[in-house]
Amino acid sequence: MTKLTKSDLFKVYDTKPETAMDKTTRVVKQIVDEETERRDAKNFRLRKARLEREANTPPVAKASAASKPRRMKPASTR
């Protein structure tokens, strides 16, 4: 039986060098991912602060005498 080596088990594929477009795409994806992560963290922080503020604020009492909206008089013609 033949002895197995790395070159016999795995096929070696030539990797092509990264093109300028590939590099740009990679960098843009990284920037977008970082911005998304920062935005999500900010939204989480603001949501948490809003919920805490709402929990600590007493409910606002409704006005007891709700009046009907006034109707405007029709404009008089001269």
Kindly describe this structure:
With about 80 residues, the chain is mainly α. About 55% of the residues lie in helices and about 0% in strands. The chain contains two helices and no strands. It has helices spanning about 5-10, 20-55. It is elongated. The N and C termini lie far apart (about 115 Å).
Ordered list of secondary-structure elements with their pairings:
Blueprint: H1 6-9, H2 20-56
Can you give me a brief rundown of this structure?
With 78 residues, the protein is mostly helical.
The percentage helix is: 40-55%
Strand elements, count: 0
Shape: elongated
Termini separation: 115 Å
Total of helices: 2
Contiguous runs where pLDDT drops below 50 for at least 5 residues: none
Give the averaged pLDDT, no decimals.
84
What is the strand content? Answer: under 5%
Q: What Rg, in angstroms, do the CA atoms define?
A: 34 Å
Q: What is the oligomeric state here?
A: single chain
The biggest beta sheet reads: none
Global structural class: mainly alpha
- SSE run: HH
Keywords:
78 residues; mainly alpha; elongated; 53% helix; 2 helices
